[in-house]
Amino acid sequence: GIFMAGFERVANILVVEDDKETVEITSRALGKGGWRATIALSMEDALMDFDRIKFDLVVTDIFMAGMGGIEGIQRMREIRPDVKILATSAGYSEMSPGAALKAAEKIGADAILPKPFALDELRRTVAVLSDEGNEESDGA
Predict the structure, then answer these.
(1) What are 36-84's pLDDT values in tens digits?
(2) Are 37 and 13 in contact (CB under 8 A)?
(3) Distance CA 129, CA 127 (A)
(4) How many whole angstroms separate alpha carbon 114 and alpha carbon 90?
(5) Where do the H-state alpha helices sit in 13-108?
């Protein structure tokens, strides 16, 4: 592989999204943020190598053809309880952050990002979830 000096470890991120344009924009934005992004165009594809490849974080759409994000997230949780999951959906755009977080927890995700999202917001959320500084915040 490529050796990158100065990086302790690059977080491996799986992007699950059936819209080709969205998946390209998302993975490119993550790449620019210094993460390694892998693309899956369906939850079925995402789960194929999920036990073999050690992803640190999954960014997944919730509403997709075939197996949706909700069932997929539950399966990912069974395989890798420690993986961080960021769910994205246009279905949450009118929801308050608190309600969105509750919904995320209910489906087994760590966070929800409403669509359309700003790319800097995506990177900020991924940075928090991948916990790069590793400092826990006390305040809620």
Answers:
(1) 999 999 999 999 999 999 999 999 998 888 998 999 999 999 999 999 9
(2) yes
(3) 6
(4) 6
(5) 20-32, 43-48, 69-79, 97-107
Q: Which pLDDT value is given to residue 4?
A: 54
On the CB side of 131, CA atoms within 13 Å amount to: 11
Q: What is the pTM of this model?
A: 0.83
**DSSP 8-state assignment for residue 87:** E
Residue with tokens 């993986």: 83
**20-32 vs 119-129: helix axis angle to the nearest 10?**
60
Q: Which of 78, 25, 22 is nearest to 50 (CA)?
A: 78
CB of 9 closer than 8 Å to CB of 34 = no
pLDDT in tens, 99-118: 877 888 888 999 988 888 99
Burial class (CB in 10 A: 0-12, 13-18, 19+), 42: middle
